[in-house]
Amino acid sequence: MSDSMTTRRGALKAAACAAAALLTASASARAQQQRRPTAADIMGPFYPIVRPLDEDADLTRVAGQPGIAQGRVLDLRGRVLDTLGHPVAGAHIEMWQANTHGRYAHASDTNVTAPLDPAFQGFARQRTDTEGCFRFLTVIPGAYPVPDPDSPWLRTRHIHFDIRGQHDRLVTQIYFAGEPHNDTDRLYQALTPAERDTVTLDPRHAVAGAPAPLIGEWTVVLASG
Ligand SMILES: [Fe+2]
Q1: 137-168: pLDDT as tens digits
Q2: Structural domains present in the chain
Q3: What is the whole-number distance in angstroms between the Cα of residue 127 and the centre of ligand 1?
Q4: Alpha-carbon distance 182 to 141, whole Å?
Q5: Measured in angstroms, how far is the CA atom of residue 132 from the centroid of ligand 1?
Q6: Helix (H), strand (E) counts: the chain
């Protein structure tokens, strides 16, 4: 790994909690609402049993691979709390997703007309720090077709998570506000509006020079932490 990459990844990690602390401060008025436990969702068929060799928090670069992942880069910042608002330190977080073209690096993905992206990591894991903070650098995933023989449909843009706290395990997916396929995504529509609020991000544009043009903020609430 190059010195510049080491430095970049270190900076990403070091800034994680500062970002989430800002998130907590700005979201204080919403704190009561956010203590509703985050909605669960299905694991889906593409959890990577075969892990990539590189599984650090920066999914936009793959160790030993030149270039950067295609797509819109997202700085995903978050925090894991219990329902009383206490941070969950040391929570194990795994995330996996399709690339910008809607393709998973998984042998079972039938969406083979969409290209793979060798510079996109596709899976990452991290543990929350003492403040319950985490941070990933990734790209906005593409929507992809679901090969239902009776009624094909499109999965809207989403990212999968498996989060293990001190007491609870939460498998879920996050979504993005305003996406045209949200209204017809069968999993998203199976959630109640209140549940959707716990898993829907509305990324904002970052200032010039930031690690990514988009910043997404998410508070995860585990029932018992
Ligand atoms: Fe998926």
Answers
A1: 999 999 999 988 899 999 999 999 999 999 99
A2: 3-222 (2.60.130.10)
A3: 22
A4: 13
A5: 25
A6: 5, 11
